[in-house]
Design a protein that fits this description.
By secondary structure, this protein is α+β, with helices and mostly antiparallel strands. The chain has a single domain, classed as Nuclear Transport Factor 2, Chain: A, CATH 3.10.450.50. 37% of the residues lie in helices and 39% in strands. The protein is built from four helices and six strands. The chain has a six-stranded mixed beta sheet. Helix 1 packs antiparallel against helix 2 and helix 2 crosses helix 3. The longest helix is centred in the middle third of the chain and has 18 residues. The radius of gyration is 14 Å and the shape is globular.
């Protein structure tokens, strides 16, 4: 699989900031496999429909209503079929990190996400 990891990571972050629901839907199908699973500490989301709901709710709560944006923090890492990246949520106008998470992405043969394990990072560790 030939994958431009920097471009892939930017596409991943962009879907969380995307205001157009139709574009988000298309991006989700391009980024995640049909049977993908996103694991959070408290729940999991399975398949495009649940991921679309998850990404849409995050966008509405944090970007549209909250005034935040998600940004890639640092360089993504990749080897074999795995990608690790960190995402920060910051005020759209600039300011301190309000949330930070690390995602470990297991990719399918076609380069889409098959499994994602997302870990919220303690802000004290991020700011240290």
């Amino acid at each position: 699989m030939e994958l431009n990891i920097a471009e892939f990571a930017q596409d991943y972050v962009a879907v969380w900031n995307e205001p157009d629901a139709g574009v988000r839907r298309r991006s989700i199908t391009e980024l995640w496999t049909e049977d993908a699973v996103q694991y959070l500490s408290s729940t999991e989301y399975r398949g495009h429909r649940e991921l679309e709901s998850r990404v849409g709710e995050a966008h509405e709560s944090f970007v549209a209503a909250g005034g935040f944006v998600f940004v890639l923090a640092g360089e993504p890492l990749a080897h074999h079929d795995n990608v690790v990246l960190r995402t920060d949520m910051i005020p759209a106008g600039g300011g301190d990190i309000a949330w930070s998470g690390t995602s470990i992405l297991e990719l399918a043969a076609d380069g889409r996400i098959r499994r994602e394990h997302q870990y919220a990072l303690p802000l004290a560790a991020v700011r240290a």
